[in-house]
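Hi W.,

Here's what went into the run:
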Amino acid sequence: KAGVTQTPRYLIKTRGQQVTLSCSPISGHRSVSWYQQTPGQGLQFLFEYFSETQRNKGNFPGRFSGRQFSNSRSEMNVSTLELGDSALYLCASSSPTALNTEAFFGQGTRLTVV
Amino acid sequence: QQQVKQSPQSLIVQKGGISIINCAYENTAFDYFPWYQQFPGKGPALLIAIRPDVSEKKEGRFTISFNKSAKQFSLHIMDSQPGDSATYFCAGVGGSYIPTFGRGTSLIVHP
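Here's what came out:
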C-alpha cells in the first residue's frame, strides 16, 4: 500500500511569489490535513479537507488556502509569500472513525522563502 | 493558546537509560492521545496511543502513562537505544479527529 506522497520535496521561492504544494493520500483515505512545521512552533494545523470540502480550519491567514479533488488528492496554495512562511509543510491522510484516528504523514515539502 | 504542553524541549539520555517525556492538556473533549515519532527528513509516524479509559499502555519498550484527573500523560522509553534518537510529539484528539500537537521533544540517545 503506497504511503502519502508529497511533491515537490524542496522549493525555493522569492518573497511575494505564490506556491502550490501537492499531496496524494493513501488510497481510500478521504481526509487530508495540512500542517506547518517550524522549529519554534512545532506542528501547526492549517486545514483539513474531507470529500472535497474544507471541514476544519486552523488559525492561519487567508494567504493559505487549499482544495481537494474528487480523487482525494489535495493541493495547498500560499500567496504573497513572506520570509516567515519558510517551513516544512506536511500533509496527512486518514480514514477517521471513532475507533481509529491515526494520521499518516508524508515526508513533507521543505519551502524556503528568500 | 497552546492546548497541549510538552516537556522537555530536548532530552539527552545514555544508551540503556529511561527517556521520559511529559505532556499536559487542557481540552477535556480530547478522547484519544497518540504519540508520534519523527526522524530527520521524514514525516511523523504513529508510535503508540492511549484512550482515557486506561491508565497505562505498553508496547515493547514504549509505555504511555495517563492521569485523567491531572490531565497529564507521559511517554516512557525503556532501555533507550541510539535508534530511538528522534523528535517525539504528543497529541490530543477530540471529536474533529484533528490532532492538536505538543511542540515536540528532541531525544538524543548517546551510545
